Model the fold of this input.
Amino acid sequence: MSWGDVGAGALRAAFPLALWGVVAATQAAWRRDGRFLASARMTAIATLALVTVASLAMVGALVSHDFSLHYVAENNARETPTYFSAISLWAALEGSILLWTTILAGAVVYVAWRGTRELPRLATTALALLFAMLSFFLLLVVTPAADPFVRLDAVPLNGRGPNPLLQDHWLMGLHPPLLYLGYVLFSIPFAYAMASLILGEGGDRWMVATRRSALVAWALLGIGIVAGGWWSYNVLGWGGYWAWDPVENAAIMPWLAATAYLHSVMVEEKRRMLRTWNLALVIGTFALTILGTFLTRSGVVNSVHSFSQSAIGPLLLGYLAAVLALSVGLLLWRSARLADSGPVAPISREAVFLFQNVLFVAVTLTVLLGTLYPLAVEALSGDQVSIGSPYFDRVAVPLGLALLFLMGVGPQLPWHGASRATLERQFAAPVVTSGALALVALVVGVRGTAAVLAFALAGFVCATVAQELARGIRARGTLHGESATTAFANLFKRSGRRYGGYVVHVGVAVIALAIAMSQAQAVQAEATLGPGGTMEVAGRTVVFEGLRDVVEPRRTQVVADLRVIDGGGSAPLVAALSYYPNATGAIGSPGIRSSATEDVYAILAAYDGRSRAWATIQIRIIPLVSWLWIGGAIVGIGALIAALPAARARERLVAATVPAGAGAE
Done:
């Protein structure tokens, strides 16, 4: 039996099981029948097992180069290294939908076994909805729309190989799965929210039950976006990391909507307000994940990220329409049960969070308009138009700076309202810090208003976080007699959600500063040089030592050997152009020398193809760009801290799982 037989058989067995899961979970919810719930739970495990077998079968086919499968022949070659062969699971449409389905099956199991123990009827209704989603994606992979196990009548001796851009850097093993995890896990809060509306609940039980899932999905999607920027920076050879590409936009939109939601839920928890708004944000976030799937996998946009035209586009569009019709209809139907508790005080934490939400939604709608407008024009008139970075930057930069400011303001304000004395006490030190950093930026020669403001606002945010930490440490020292180190550790143990959120704020501030500096302060030079020729860039001397050819089984490279000389000595740097058999042109491989203060980024732009007598070299000095990746890691660490249960919750969980009398002598 071949890998294809195993995988196809597993998927075809999983599809009817998922359909039965919809029936069993629905019966368990409405009849409150434990037998149906037990059946739904076992069905969830069996479905996950089968889909996992199918995914592993595809990996096995890729690694063993089973070219009898169309997917393997199109996305693999004998020369492809094992690592890139394995991750070709998500190199094209059918494999990526299979991975998506596997993650969704895992989410179904999580709700079936964890959620139904805590809120049985609400979680079981949500489980039925998740089974319905899983059934749709299984339908895609067992029909010609996205079947990964289609066989070829004539088996080729070798395959075409993966897209060259997807086999040139190890980050392709990290970036897409993180995005898929972020996308798919937003299904859980959406399913719970819809279950709450179906059952007519007007409270926030669904929100409390899915808080951690929403946070984890948000964090994974955010880290995936940063990893994508890192991949673009290292692979595409243009010196940037974000180009407002339509598929990049498809990832950032649900992340922005989810960020608004994570702030807005705190208002509902504290003040019983914004219930309708929170449900709308969950619906919008989930709908944007489906839109992102459509843009990436339907082939309607031209992008280095997107796949070719396929039959899956209309199906995904229909799925999106059905999701919006169902969710918006339910929200309108139950709107009378979602009344808020009272007005918002103008100078309060809830007011800042509400204003933040408005700005997040404004940015999201701006990106949505800029992404869909060219598609709408082409669909209606046949004309092709493009909207470039200036449109997005003109709106996103001021709104982003405003959000950075509010990020520092919100945690300093109390709920319900603040007096003038409170404002003076809370903001004196952060404002002074902000002003000092703005002055430092001007003194060291930072150019551009936006970059100077980013310096000031990043300092403002970090100062507010430092102030909150200092206040918490002092309070624990006074109340519990703890040392500063112990108090610091206990703040994160006892109030991880709050202080983890502060760590996230620091990470976002670092990212904002890195973006501002790398955009405003970068220096670029280009020269055509012969061997031994030099060029001067921002006080550095770059020596072109010559070209050489590198022949590998899967590609050939023309490599430019460079040497960068500065006050700290000299260091080699290598830039290259790579040629793959299935590529129409060369793929750039920049040379990058990173440090804490700047990157030296070298590009081989052109060369003498006959005698190798000259090469055109571009050099870019990009300040603080490495802090963009560090900031992403800080955000991930903060999200992890916030997602962990607090110490008291862990103690209750342990107590609940220890049998009575287990510790008795």
